[in-house]
């Protein structure tokens, strides 16, 4: 797999989902280490391996440590108030036509940036 993956923002529905719910990672799940997938919730049985977080360094000057929630396939934390995917999408003012770009910096560290179409 490439060292860069892209998630297109195709519609107003995508904007709503990414800013109000979270960014689904299902289509790019294999881009991240398998042991970054954690349990769905605290009451669920632990994963059959040690879950290890990944670091996401954003183009907004802040970063966050996260795992991927099993079953929903999104990053934690999920609150838009703290550093995470929803906050990043909201802070960028995501629009249809934008592209979310992840670049692998090393095994557990990734860059996150926004690409906007040229006008």
Explain this structure:
- This protein has 119 residues and is of the alpha/beta class.
- It has one domain (4-115): At1g16640 B3 domain, CATH 2.40.330.
- It contains 2 helices and 8 strands, in the order βαβββββαββ.
- A 5-stranded mixed sheet has the order 1-7-8-3-4, with no helix packed on it. Strands 2-5-6 form a 3-stranded mixed sheet, with no helix packed on it.
- Helix 1 packs across helix 2.
- It is globular, with a radius of gyration of 14 Å.
- The model has no long low-confidence stretch (mean pLDDT 93).
The H/E string reads EHEEEEEHEE
The proportion of residues forming helix, as a percent range, comes to 10-25%
Rg over CA atoms: 14 Å
Distance between the termini: 30 Å
Instruction: Return the CATH architecture.
Output: Beta Barrel
Number of strands: 8
Shape: globular
CATH topology name: At1g16640 B3 domain
| Overall SS class | alpha/beta
Strand order of the largest sheet: 1-7-8-3-4
Beta-strand residue fraction: 25-35%
Low-confidence segments:
none
Would you state the CATH class?
Mainly Beta
Counted up, domains total: 1
- Describe the sheet with the most strands: 5 strands, mixed
């Amino acid at each position: 797999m490439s060292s860069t993956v892209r998630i297109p923002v195709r519609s107003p529905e995508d904007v709503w989902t990414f800013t109000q719910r979270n960014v689904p990672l299902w289509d790019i799940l294999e881009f991240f280490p398998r042991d970054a997938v954690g349990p769905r919730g605290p009451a669920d049985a632990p994963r059959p391996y040690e879950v290890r977080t990944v670091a996401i360094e954003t183009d907004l000057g802040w970063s966050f440590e996260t795992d991927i929630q099993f079953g929903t396939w999104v990053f934690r934390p999920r609150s838009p108030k703290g550093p995470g995917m929803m906050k990043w999408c909201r802070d960028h003012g995501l629009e249809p036509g934008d592209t979310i770009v992840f670049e692998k910096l090393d095994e557990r560290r990734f860059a996150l940036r926004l690409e906007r179409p040229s006008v």
